[in-house]
């Protein structure tokens, strides 16, 4: 049976950006990628159709797929759902957990053409190439107990549990060290070991693991300092490894160094090379349905899919080169446009990347 790619467009700008990325997948099929495409519902889209953010049908299709391309989930329409298990975000979290997609790669790379779109001075971001390795199936996102309750006197409280065991820390640490070996051989582990026991253990386990990678230089940093260093001198970082919540926050911060959150792709992988690929950004309700969203993070996520789930580095590089080519042509969606640039729509950007890919 052919490998399957499951497309989950989701909510907000999700359908618009996945539409552009699917064009590139189809062009890859024409270039010899032997896969079948299927579609499913997730998030608010699935709630509207079935009452549940992750219907069994979608989960079964996800389990059977080699790779999943997800647009984005969530939006104001579903924000009033107080039952967390029925919110759109639960659809995304449910797939990550069910498929054990613990290794989340979020590369923050500055395309040189976008140096002026970054909120930092060009000399601070020129040549930026950071890989954030975020643990994705544990930590405070999934720890038990969690919930809402009430104390005597009717005072309400909410609580979550930040927990990691050493096996979870070791397996994400390995992803980071292996990644560093293919890059500049530096890992910075980000924690809050001055306050939280769970990250004291994190630091200890990562330090033990480093002995197996003597060729990789390990440093540690508290998360508050890391947030500051990312905007002070981001090029000091090569690979950053961190837990689920810190990684979520730092990757949005790093995205802005590259010009826009609309530029940051991601891969979420399990131990079998099965993966979900999605832009790091959300459903952008403020611009949804207006043909304004930047589709490049999603298109670059397809490149990550080809590299990590299909072992097709040449096709992946061709997609990345096509993105570089359209940026060279001066095409910019609104989020990355500077005065004098040619501002284009989501659709025009997708078409231009497709044309550059086909010519490449
Ligand atoms: P967001 O990332 O959706 O938007 C933040 C800002 O960035 C907005 O101004 C938006 O217009 C802009 N933006 C985001 N993507 C863009 C793109 N491709 N092109 C141009 N501009 C872009 O974050 P938010 O507003 O905090 O969240 C909105 C909804 O998305 C929430 O329901 C949230 O839970 C959800 N969300 C989903 C994912 C996901 O599906 N992976 C990720 C983050 C947030
Ligand atoms: C992301 C998103 C998700 C996360 C939300 C929507 C559950 O912000 O993929 O970065 O927090 O992981
Ligand atoms: Mn996020």
Automatic annotation (TrEMBL):
This is 3-isopropylmalate dehydrogenase. SUPFAM superfamilies: Isocitrate/Isopropylmalate dehydrogenase-like (SSF53659). It comes from Halotalea alkalilenta. Binds 1 Mg(2+) or Mn(2+) ion per subunit. Mg(2+) binds at residues 224, 248, 252. Substrate binds at residues 96, 106, 134, 224. HAMAP family: LeuB_type1. The keyword Metal-binding applies. InterPro entries: IsoCit/isopropylmalate_DH_CS, IsoPropMal-DH-like_dom, Isopropylmalate_DH. NCBIfam families: leuB. GO terms for cellular component: cytosol. Its cofactor is Mg(2+); Mn(2+). NAD(+) binds at residues 282-294. Catalyzes the oxidation of 3-carboxy-2-hydroxy-4-methylpentanoate (3-isopropylmalate) to 3-carboxy-4-methyl-2-oxopentanoate. The product decarboxylates to 4-methyl-2 oxopentanoate. Belongs to the isocitrate and isopropylmalate dehydrogenases family. LeuB type 1 subfamily. The keyword Amino-acid biosynthesis applies. The record marks 141, 192 as: Important for catalysis. It is found in: Cytoplasm. Its main location: cytoplasm. Its EC number is 1.1.1.85. Keywords: Amino-acid biosynthesis, Branched-chain amino acid biosynthesis, Cytoplasm, Leucine biosynthesis, Magnesium, Manganese, Metal-binding, NAD, Oxidoreductase. It catalyses: (2R,3S)-3-isopropylmalate + NAD(+) = 4-methyl-2-oxopentanoate + CO2 + NADH.
């Amino acid at each position: 049976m052919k490998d399957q790619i499951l497309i989950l467009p989701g909510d907000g700008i999700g359908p618009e950006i996945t539409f552009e990325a699917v064009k590139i997948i189809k062009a890859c099929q024409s270039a010899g990628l032997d896969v079948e495409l299927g579609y499913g519902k997730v998030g608010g889209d699935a709630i509207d159709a079935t009452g549940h953010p992750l219907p069994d049908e979608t989960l079964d299709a996800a389990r059977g797929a080699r790779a999943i391309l997800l647009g984005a989930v969530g939006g104001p329409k579903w924000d009033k759902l107080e039952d967390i298990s029925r919110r759109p975000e639960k659809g995304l979290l449910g797939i990550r957990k069910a498929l054990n997609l613990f290794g989340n790669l979020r590369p923050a790379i500055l395309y040189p053409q976008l140096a002026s779109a970054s909120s930092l001075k060009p000399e601070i971001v020129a040549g930026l190439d950071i890989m954030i390795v975020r643990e994705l199936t544990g930590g405070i996102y999934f720890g038990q107990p969690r919930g809402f309750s009430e104390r005597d006197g009717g005072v309400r409280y909410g609580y979550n549990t930040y927990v990691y065991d050493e096996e979870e820390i070791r397996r994400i640490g390995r992803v980071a060290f292996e990644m560093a070996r293919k890059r500049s051989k530096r890992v910075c582990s980000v924690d809050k070991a001055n306050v939280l026991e769970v990250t004291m253990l994190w630091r200890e386990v990562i330090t033990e693991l480093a002995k197996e990678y003597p060729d990789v230089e390990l440093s540690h940093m508290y998360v508050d300092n890391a947030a500051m260093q990312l905007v002070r001198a981001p090029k000091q970082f090569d690979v950053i490894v961190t837990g689920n919540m810190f990684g979520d926050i730092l990757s949005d911060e790093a995205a802005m160094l590259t010009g826009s959150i609309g530029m940051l792709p991601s891969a979420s992988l399990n131990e079998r090379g099965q993966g979900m690929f999605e832009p790091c950004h959300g459903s952008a309700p403020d611009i949804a349905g207006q043909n304004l969203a930047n589709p490049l993070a999603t298109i670059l996520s397809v490149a990550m899919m080809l590299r990590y789930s299909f072992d097709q580095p040449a096709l992946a590089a061709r997609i990345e080169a096509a993105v570089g080519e359209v940026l060279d042509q001066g095409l910019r969606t609104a989020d990355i446009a500077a005065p004098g640039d040619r501002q284009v729509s989501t659709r025009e950007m997708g078409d231009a990347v497709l044309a550059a890919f086909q010519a490449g």
